[in-house]
Structure formats: structure tokens, C-alpha cells
Amino acid sequence: MEKKRRNFCRFATFNVSLARQEMGALLRELETPQHEQLQKLAAIIQWIRPDVLLLQEIDYDEKGRALSLFNQHYLNHSQYQQSPIDYPYQCVFPSNTGIAVDYPPEEKLAGELYYPTFGFGHFAGQYAFALLSKYPLLTRQQRRFQYFLWRDMPEPLLPTINDSDKAAFFTQKLWPRFRLSSKNHVDIPVVLPCRTVHLLLSHPTPPLSHVLSPAFNACRNHDEIRLWHDYLLPERSGYLYDDQGTYGGLLAGESAVIMGDLNADPNAGDGIRRGIRALLQHPRLHAEVATGRWIPRSRGGQTHAAQRSSLPFSRLYFARAHTASWGLRADYVLPSDDLSVRASGVFWPTLDQAEFAWVAHDVSSDHRLVWVDVLDCV
């Protein structure tokens, strides 16, 4: 008898920490079906069984060979007694990581000292992201914002050299060339049985201190998150243009799910928190998932935080919502408010569960898979 189709779609995001230090290294690892990290990553995915899955920190190759090999050699085969899973629809996205900034000759040296590439990376496409889906992806309708210039965002947060020197981090000649997205921002529709949902994908830079400007990455992280905040509001998205030159954001009445490692916690960390807080309080996003009873949580995150006595109480209080081993809520699946949610969670087993071996000592990743179930045919 044919298995009855479930009436919900499970959306998930997972920073899989598969970025390697040299181009092609990941492909070589994927050629073998017995790599421990890859086996444990696949086991986690097979356990949660997402319908739509965003992977971050997987090195980009134009033909998507790494993604195909991961699906073929690992997901399609049982890992640790889990049932195989297959994703017939796959899409890879280019990344600004490792791409050199085209500075004018007279400012090339200064520019390379400031920020040699549009996004941190030892080669083009390191730390990219990719998409796996059980449902068709409208790849020809996708919109990418890889080339959108930071200067074209109204009232951007401009970084300074340092806290005591308020001189602008960018000179007048460097600023016009710099892209906002540290990797990429992508809107790609997925066709579910009863509706089409726009997947809004990104992986903003972590807000770590820059050698010349403590606030550089924090400002950029804030504005990368702000891009989606504005994209969801027709009255605020008119300035946004995609890589094909089309202006504007999500149309009124369209459904969306924001997915990705946003590298921002509303209650802790080094970021400019008003950016992520504004997104979580967005009138067009599902409030219960963003800030209410459907915030993805786990018991494992709480017990992990309790074992780290160095964490302040503020982090322990919110620990069930943590998605990274250093104790922050960094990874998000945020549906629009027109979608109905039935469940959510973070894959973070406790010490007494056998599956804890898949995450112990960050053997698979220093992030945890985050998922949200959205009702489809209701």
C-alpha cells in the first residue's frame, strides 16, 4: 500500500561545516562513502527527514558535484541504521567568498589591507550554501542579490576605522565597489502540492572584530539581515535590485520562509542586536516561530549550556533555543505569517541518547540542524 502523503512540509537549515581549506578537497572526501563527519551529517538529516533543506558552509562548484555526491554517497544510503533519503531537486549558489574586490589601481594596496575579498574565503566559493528539496524548485525564477552594492541600501550602517577614530572604513573610491552580501542572498520558489513558497536564503558574515575596524563585520551582519527585513515590505524594498536588474521585493500575498545561519542572537553575542530583533518582530513573519511558543528548541542545548559554567545567566536562560555549540541562537527558519505551523525543533540530543554521538565534540558540525513544520494542504 502506498504510504499516505503527510500534509505538512518540513523546512530545515543546517550549517554542516564542510568548508575546506583548499579548492577541491571536499570533492575528494565525497568520493568515498566512509567519511565519518559526512556519515554523521547524513544520519542527522535522515533522522529529521526535512522536505526542504538548506546547507551552509559547503564549498561551491558550478556543476553542483559536491551536492550530488553527498546525496548519492551518503543520504541515499543508510547511516547508523537510519532510513535513506533522497532529494531529487538540488541547487547550488555562487558566493562572494574568496572573490577579490576590484579596487582602483591607486587604492589597491589600501583596499587589500582593509578587505581583500567581498567575503572571507581562501578561494572563490568557500563557505557557500546549497539547497536540497523533495519538491520542485523554480530555478529560472530565482532572484540573486550577490552583486547588490552596500552603498545602495538607504542609510546603511557605515563602519569606522576604530572606536576612537570615526573616520570611515571605506574611502570614497572603495565604498562604491563593495557588495553587501558576504556570500549571497537568494529568493527561490519551491512548489509544494498546494502552494508555492519563496525560500529566502542567506548566510551573513559573523560579527567578529575586524583588524582595522571592530564594528565592520557587525555593521555588515546587521545590514545583511536588514535586506530581508526590507525585502518583505513592498513599501521599503523599492531600492533592492537583483543580479538581473529587477527591482523590488516580495509581493503582497506571497508566502516565504527565511532560512539560514544568520550569525545573530537577539539576546547575546557580539552582533548589533537591533538588526535580528527587528527581523524577529517583523509584521510579515510568523510571530510564534520568531519569538513565541514555536521557537525551535531542544533539551540538548539546555544541558550543554548548563555544563559550561562560564556562560552568563542570560545565555543559560535562553539555552533551549541555542543552535550552536558556543551558546547562541544563530540559525533560523522563519515562515511568513500566512503559513500555519505545527511543530519545530533543534536536533540536539542529550547525553543519555544514542544520537548524541552524532554531535559530541562537534564531530559533525559546531551548529545544529533547525527545522519547522508548515502545514500545506489545509
TrEMBL record:
GO terms for molecular function: catalytic activity. Residues 13-367 form the Endonuclease/exonuclease/phosphatase domain. This is Endonuclease/exonuclease/phosphatase domain-containing protein. The lineage of its organism: Bacteria, Pseudomonadati, Pseudomonadota, Gammaproteobacteria, Thiotrichales.
